[in-house]
Design goal:
- About 40% of the residues lie in helices and about 15% in strands.
- It is built from 5 helices and 3 strands.
- The protein has a 3-stranded mixed sheet.
- By secondary structure, it is α+β, with helices and mostly antiparallel strands.
């Protein structure tokens, strides 16, 4: 890992991106305080070409960690009346 200031990052962006391409991390400092990290980007092998394109264009985000579905389904359900749920669903459609 290396740290760089915003100015150094601007001046030597290509060099820092090559560093990241090698699998390493760059921490960007703003007035000596960490403000961002630049990490290598790895697409999972399980993505097809369409999904990879959606991720690359920012239209789809990858999960940060796998979902534990067993734990998810053990969570208590919501306590919203049918009428409130229907109104929320209808309102969420907007002017489509």
């Amino acid at each position: 890992m290396r740290t760089v200031t915003i100015g150094a990052l601007k001046d030597q962006l290509s060099e820092h991106l090559r560093y990241v391409q090698q699998g390493k991390e760059v921490v960007v400092l703003n007035r000596r305080r960490p403000m961002a990290r630049i990490l290598p980007f790895h697409l999972p092998d399980s993505l097809d070409a369409d999904e990879a394109r959606l991720v690359a264009t920012g239209q789809m985000n990858l999960e940060e960690q796998p979902v534990d579905w067993k734990a998810f389904w053990k969570l208590p359900g919501g306590k919203v009346s049918r009428n409130v749920a229907m109104r929320a669903a209808i309102d969420s459609k907007g002017d489509r």
